[in-house]
What we know:
Shape: globular
Largest sheet: 8 strands, mixed
Number of strands: 10
CATH topology: Spore Coat Polysaccharide Biosynthesis Protein SpsA, Chain A
Radius of gyration: 16 Å
Amino acid sequence: MNPKNPTAGIILAAGLSTRFGRPKQLVDLNGKPLIERVIDACLGSRLDKIVAVLGSDALQIESVLALKYGDRRFSTIINPDYRNGMSRSLRAGLSAVMQDFPAVMFLLGDQPLVNSTLIDRLLERFGASEKDICVPIHQGKRGNPTLFSSRFYKRLLTISGDIGAREVIRDFPEAVLSVEIEDPLHFFDIDTAKDLENLGKILKNR
């Protein structure tokens, strides 16, 4: 039995979208909202549970998602403290699943090119290793999604600010399994309308 199974996916999607000017979670990319792309990747993977952490514009986003997702693996929670940074959403998501899941994967709601193949690859490599943290890298650059075993739950619940779990990864290098990925577009995140335009052009040319 794998001590890191079952694994829950936590989608961090509570941000204010300040630089975008409107809820980027619902912004269309080639016919599908950004957050739906991430949810679909999770549902197509071997993740056992998926929780989307919402905050800003949560009711609007929930109403859109409720029309499409009836999968019992998927649910949403609202982080009322979303204005105080990504760490609060990370902690809210972890608190919702930590009693039942010995490992978690954190995903970003604005990285629409993360797919189920990448998720499953990370799950497989993480599950087969003795490491307690797993991160994807491309040519030395670290990205998301990231995985943590329950060894680090207490530590994750202490982080603050808007840096996610970066400091935990930094402080425990001996616990980190790095998985090389071939396509840097998996790391592409949408912060501005220009980012969305650029990604649309890249996808069109592929």
